Amino acid sequence: MNVRKMRLYDTENIHSGDDRDEYEKDYARLIQSPAFRRLQGKSQVFGAGSGDYYRTRLTHSLEVSQIAREVARKLGKSYAFLANKEHPGLMIDPEVVECASLAHDLGHPPFGHKGEEVLNRLLQEEHGLKYEGNAQNFRILMFLEKRAGSGSGLDLTASVLLAINKYPFCIDEPGRQKGVYRKEWEGIESLRLAWEMPVGCATLEAQLMDLCDDIAYSTHDLEDGIRAGKIQMDRGFFEDDRLVAHVVHEITNDPSYDETKWENVDQSAMVKQVLINYLEQWEIIYAECDREPSKTRREMKARWVRAFANEVGIIDDPDSGWKKVTLIRDGSTNLELLRTMEILKKLAWVTLIKDFRVQRLHKRSEVMIERLWGSFKTYEAGRLIIPPDWLESYEAQKDKWSWERLAADYISGMTDAYAEKVYAEFFASRSGSIYERD
């Protein structure tokens, strides 16, 4: 049996018995799913609907998948051991990485990371439950999504499920902030055991997907920020000591901050240098592009994606005894380029997310999610105002999930616009027919 193409439920391919490859089926199931379509209405940085130019979760996911697939092809040609297929977790199939990239953000609720933060706080304070976007991915893929012949999500192959699983832990363990909810972890853990995966280690495909997500984030969000005027391409902006201090603060206060990566590094000096280099590169490209800002933005983004993608490689990780996908140079981790990527990510964060107008949007979205939660959180009130198919699913399977988790599922599946629509129905005067289609 090919453990990479095994499925948890449709093990005999009863419901997908055509001549397509298994990963082609996964791809079709993902892009034709309602959860994937809804990404077009979910925020990336700016609120969905802020403008035709800016990225949404959908366009971000498509861009990550394009980068990941191309890097996967390159790695397949560069590392002979991948062709040996010595272990199912030490392989890189471009189609698998592409599918994982398309699915990596399905669990994000409306209003971006703020929505995730608010839902997690409400669930933890009131019910001791967690909400986290990566865990919600698996709840969607393995339970909430429906396809013909399956009552258990999209029933993707083991390779794709494990390629999405960049945090291979049960999130319900004490102290875990990221991972997989316990119910879905049972299935993921069974696949990992079948593959004989080392505890706590992600497959190479999951690591590659995660790194390409960072590449997209650190380049594409900056392009959007420049287009929006939040990042001003002049020396006054880039040489401001307050900007440098804010970037350093975000780096050192990130929960994933690793002091060893910054050992013996003057962080302020490096941030200043990276910012100035970024501006000077802009000025060169701006002249090459006949001083045309739109063309300059696209070329700037393309060159940075290429700079990162060309350095992606695989090394042995002595700490885990596994292999690691990272940025490398001369056979070792390229810490300088990893630090540069982190600085650019934080530049996007402090200039876009921390912008007071975006923070006002976050405050507004916090209020909306809190009040929507208050409307749906109890069975007695919520069952009267939740769509009938959701209520039917709950009644049929309430031994597997609590009403509180159902309410969080329903809210988290909303697009930004739909959350505002439901909020307006509950709390704002409006005109129009109550029979408008949801």
Keywords:
438 residues; mainly alpha; Hypothetical protein af1432; 3-stranded antiparallel beta sheet; globular
Briefly, what is this?
This protein is mostly helical and about 450 residues long. The protein contains 20 helices and 3 strands.
> What is the domain tally?
3
**Largest sheet, if any?**
3 strands, antiparallel
Helix content range of the residues, please? 55-70%
Count of extended strands: 3
What is the terminal separation in angstroms? 44 Å
Q: Could you walk me through the main structural features you see in this protein, from its secondary elements to its overall organization?
A:
By secondary structure, the chain is mainly alpha-helical. It has three domains: 3-11 and 23-195, Hypothetical protein af1432; 231-354, no CATH class; 360-427, no CATH class. It has 20 helices and three strands. It has helices at residues 22-31, 34-37, 57-78, 81-84, 94-103, 112-127, 133-144, 158-164, 182-195, 204-227, 235-238, 241-252, 267-288, 293-309, 335-353, 356-376, 379-382, 388-397, 403-412, 416-427; strands at residues 312-317, 322-329, 332-333. A three-stranded antiparallel β-sheet has the order 1-2-3. A hairpin with a 2-residue loop joins strand 2 and strand 3 (332-333). Helix 1 (22-31) packs parallel to helix 5 (94-103) and helix 6 (112-127) runs antiparallel to helix 19 (403-412). The protein is globular, with a radius of gyration of 22 Å. The mean pLDDT is 91. Residues 57-218 form the HD domain. GO terms for molecular function: dGTPase activity. InterPro entries: dGTPase, dGTPase-like, HD/PDEase_dom, HD_domain, PHydrolase_assoc_dom.
